Amino acid sequence: MSGYATPCSSNPDRIGRDGFLRLQFERRGPGTILSQSRFTLPLQALTPLALEDGTAYLMLLNPTGGVLGGDHLLTEIVQGKDTHVCLTTPSATRIYRTAEKPAVLETVIQLGEGATLEYLPDHVIPHTGSALRQSLRVEMARGSRAILLDTFAAGRVARGERWNFSEIDSRMEVVVCGKPAFLNRTKINPSAQRPERLGLMEEFSYFACLSLFADEFADWPQVVAAMHAELEHVPQVKGGVSLLSRGGCVVRYLAASASDLTHTNRKLWNAARELVVGLPPFDHRKY
Question: What pTM did the predictor assign?
Fold first, then answer.
């Protein structure tokens, strides 16, 4: 593995910093290795762990503790043929107050033939007065598979802050074999439309979207039924499962507490890993 940091390229005439992270993975024997790593703070990655099934388990890190208005953080990840990578974060991503421009988070992931991606970061916590624009684009080659999680909170709920941020604008795009498979955009502006209204978030403070994709996979009705059954076993959350027209399904759910969200994320992740990837659960510890 080769890894190095580059000097911060932020323009001193503006507020915020430019962060960059690029990771490249290759298949070596029975496992996946991190072959190249380059980063510019405030982005970084910890040394990957090799799981028994050959998966490279890696934490994406922001050592500054949060994202400020004006920050522009770009992550690029390339997975070679037949690699299996699980990406997560050590904790929630905090978005701090901004006086001017929003924080911008961009992630682009490319999957080679037969590659498998599990992308499961912890939820986003927008602080009072914060603004976030984030995007995730996943480009999948033939025979590849992906489990993608996108979650956010209404704010620092434990401190009584709900829907006090300025804006969240989140976009996810998945392309399979050069053809669009999924495009989702979530835009919340609490000052224009209160999210706690009837028919929207109501009393819930956490939102999650778990998306499953697998090229050359046919048993999607079985996966949808199984994910429905998993949701029924966590009555404290409300959600549903939708079958996509091009090889995949999406699970959306609402939770009242962070513990309910974390518990449900873990149950659904474990089920998805077994159904779509064909592998058992593993220890989720992050320390």
Answer: 0.93
